[in-house]
Structure formats: C-alpha cells, structure tokens
C-alpha cells in the first residue's frame, strides 16, 4: 500500500469553508455569514452543552442521590488460554507473576481468571476470583485454583434454618476449618391447643 493509494480512496474529511473573506470569496456580500444575528458576528462560539438559552440538560438532571458505581471493585480479567501460552508447567501464577509476564498492566483491585481457551499444564493459580469453568479447567489439568476472596453466602430468612447454619459455621470454625457434621435443625413444636371454655 502506498500513500498515493490513500489519496485515491477518498478520506471522509469535509473541507471547512472559510467565511468572511470579502466580496472576492464568490459568495456575495455577507461572505457566508448570513444576515445579522449572533452567528454573523466575529468570535461567535458556544459551549458544548448550550441549548440556545433553554435550561440545559446538565441543569435539568437532578444531582442528589447516591451512586455505588464510584465504589465498585475493578478486576483485571485473564483467560486460562493466556496462562497456557505464557507459563510453564509447575509454576505458581499470582498477580505479581501476571504483571511480570505482561498479562496484567493496569491498576486494579484484583485479578479474575476466566475460562476461555484450553489449559493442559499443571499450574498453581492464586487469584482473587475464578469463574466456574476456569476453576474446573485448572483442576482438570492437575493444578490448583486458590481464590483470595470468598463470596459471602446469603443467609436464610427462616430463623430456624439461620440458627442451624450459624451453628454449623461455628462447629466448622471450632474444628479448624474441616467439614464438620452440621447439627440437625431443631424440630418445631406444634402450637398448644387453645383452652376450652367451661360451660
């Protein structure tokens, strides 16, 4: 490809017509500026949100309220296919290693491993989040997927089930994180019958 071909292709650029160049410009007395008014004066400019004096959209929109988007966590995403290309079998993959290989460059709150691509190498991956498919592919290849952030499980609304879940969590914590047998939920006692009226 040559620069001469670029000229022939016709770039989408519209040439700006010079206004206000006198009678010799070939467009009459007003020289392309029309008759009187703000657009005919010299140095006319408008700010981008100006709407001709009407209250602009920026002022019509309410400014009160709260938006959680400013406090959202930003994660850099890396596919398991990229790990296959860059890392060797048996290596430990963490955020520092990903930055050294150039897979993570921006400032972020953590790294999330996605499941796009194939993985055949045994890797020990330590990341903040994993998708289900990514964790399955890493474990299927013989590696380990260690999540640095554990998602909180929603608490049940039923008070009986909630108490049983809390007791199970306390027992698991007391056992040193091992899977302890969860206690059976307490049986609900049937309500007592209402007292009969004596005649």
Features:
199 residues; alpha/beta; Ribosomal Protein L15, Chain: K, domain 2; three-stranded parallel β-sheet; 6 helices; 25% helix; flat
Describe the structure in your own words.
The protein has 199 residues and is α/β, with parallel strands linked by helices. It has a domain at 71-147: Ribosomal Protein L15, Chain: K, domain 2. Helix content is 25%, strand content 11%. The chain is built from six helices and six strands. It has helices at residues 3-9, 57-60, 80-86, 95-101, 132-140, 159-174; strands spanning 75-79, 92-93, 110-114, 124-127, 129-130, 144-147. The strands form two sheets. It has a three-stranded parallel sheet. A three-stranded parallel sheet has the order 2-4-6. The protein is flat and about 105 Å long. The model has no long low-confidence stretch (mean pLDDT 84).
**What order do the SSEs take from the amino end to the carboxyl end, as H and E?**
HHEHEHEEEHEH
Low-confidence stretches: none
Q: What is the strand arrangement across the widest sheet? A: 1-3-5
How far is the N terminus from the C terminus? 109 Å
Question: How is the quaternary structure best described?
Answer: single chain
Please bin the fraction of helical residues: 25-40%
Short description:
By secondary structure, the chain is of the alpha/beta class. It contains six helices and six strands; from the N terminus they run H-H-E-H-E-H-E-E-E-H-E-H.
Please render the helix and strand layout as text:
Elements: H1 3-9, H2 57-60, E1 75-79, H3 80-86, E2 92-93, H4 95-101, E3 110-114, E4 124-127, E5 129-130, H5 132-140, E6 144-147, H6 159-174
Parallel strand pairs: 1-3, 2-4, 3-5, 4-6
């Amino acid at each position: 490809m040559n620069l001469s071909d670029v000229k022939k292709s016709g770039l989408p650029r519209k040439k700006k017509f010079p206004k206000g160049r006198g009678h010799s410009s070939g467009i009459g007395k007003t020289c392309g500026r029309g008759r009187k008014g703000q657009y005919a004066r010299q140095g006319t400019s408008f700010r981008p949100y100006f709407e001709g004096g009407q209250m602009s959209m920026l002022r019509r929109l309410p400014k009160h309220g709260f938006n959680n988007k400013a406090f959202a966590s930003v994660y850099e995403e890396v596919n398991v296919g990229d790990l296959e290309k860059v890392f060797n079998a048996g290596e430990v993959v963490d955020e520092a290693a990903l930055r050294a290989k150039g897979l993570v460059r921006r400032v972020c709150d953590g790294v999330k491993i996605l499941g796009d691509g194939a993985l055949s190498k045994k890797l020990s991956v330590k990341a903040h989040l994993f998708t289900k498919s990514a964790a399955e592919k890493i474990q299927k290849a013989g590696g380990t997927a260690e999540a640095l952030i554990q998602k909180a499980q929603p608490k049940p609304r039923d008070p009986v089930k909630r108490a049983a879940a809390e007791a199970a969590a306390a027992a698991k914590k007391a056992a040193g994180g091992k899977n302890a047998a969860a206690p059976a939920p307490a049986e609900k006692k049937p309500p007592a019958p209402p007292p009969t009226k004596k005649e």
